[in-house]
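Explain this record to help learners:
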Amino acid sequence: MIQPLFGTMLMGGFECAAQKLKSRRRLDIAASTGHAARAAEDYRLLHAHGMAAARDGLRWHLIEQRPGRYDWSSFLPMLRAARETNTRIIWDLLHYGIPDGVDVLSPRFITRFAAFAREAARVIASETDTAPCFTPVNEISYWAFAGGDTGDLNPFARGSGDVLKRQLVRAALAATCEVRSINSQARITCAEPLINVLPADASPAAAAKAARHNESQFEAVDMLLGLKAPDLGGHADALDVIGFNYYYNNQWIDEGRTVFLGDWLHVPLHQLLGPAAARYSQPVYIAETGTEGVFRPHWLRYVCDEVCVAARQGTMVGGICLYPIISHLGWVDDRHCQNGLFDGHAPDGHRHAHAALAGEIRDQATRFRALARVSAAA
C-alpha cells in the first residue's frame, strides 16, 4: 500500500544549512540560492512538478541575534508563501545554524533553543490553521559525528561525539515539549541517516566493528523514544514520523571505499528500510535523497522502485523528499553542486529545471498517485 503522509509522495527539500565553518564564515544556503526571497515562486514550481509538500527551515541565527529578542522578518514571508500556495512544510527548527555566542555543549543552549522553538510554534500558529510539522534538530547522528568526532561542524571537537549526541537529543526533546505546549496537534519528525557499513575484512573483529557502526545509526532515534539512555527524557510520543536520509554514498566498507549502486556488495534499499522501519511503531519516510549530475533521474527512479518493493513487502514509506531541490554551491569549496531539480547558483538566477530529472519526477508522481488510489480503494 502507498499512503502519503504529507499530501504527495514526492516532496522537495530546500537546503537550509546555516552553520559557521572552521574559517568562521557562515553559510546561509537559503539566501545564497535565493530561496529565502523567492519562496512563493519556489513553492509554486514544486506544485508545477507534482510536489505539494516540502522540507524547509527557519534560520535561528537571523531570528534571534540577541538573547530573547526575535525578529521574524526572515521567516514570515516563507511561512505566508507556504500558506498562500497550499504547500505542506516540514519546518527544520535547527539545521546546524546556531546563533553567534551560543555554546552548543552548554546548558544554556538547550534552554535558549527550547524558548526559540516555543516562539516559532507561536508564530506559526498565529498564521496558519493546519497542524504544523517540525524537525526540531536536523541529523543528530551526523552532527554528533561531524561536530564531535571529526571536527568539521560546530563545536569542531574530537572524541566528543557521544556527548554531543546526548546534548542534541536533550535539545530536540526540550524543543518538542515547547512546541506541543503551543500546539498539541503539531507533528514531530526527525531526519537521520540510513547507512550500511560492511566489514573491512573477513575477521570476526571486523564484523563486530561494522555491526556496531550499523547499530549506532539508530542511537539518536532510540534516545528520543526513550529506548536508550532514559535519563535524557525520551518517550514514546517524542516522534510522530521517522525520517531516513539515504544518499548514493550511504554504504561503504569500514575504513574503506564507498559501495555504490551496481556494486555486488551493495544492499538494495528496501532491505535496509524493512528492518529500520520494523524497529519502531511510527510511520517512516525518506527525508532526504538525491545525487549529482546526469545520474539524478536514475537515482530517483531507483529509490522510487525500492520504496514500491518495500511497500509490497509490508514496509510503508509515506514520502520521498528529493534533497536539495535547488542546486547550490559547495559548503567549503563553493563548487557548483548540480544536485537539484533546479540548476543555477545565483540568488536571482533563473530556475531552469534539469529536463531528465523533471521527466522522471513527472512519471513517478503519476505512478504514486495511481498507487495511492489503489490503496485507498482496497
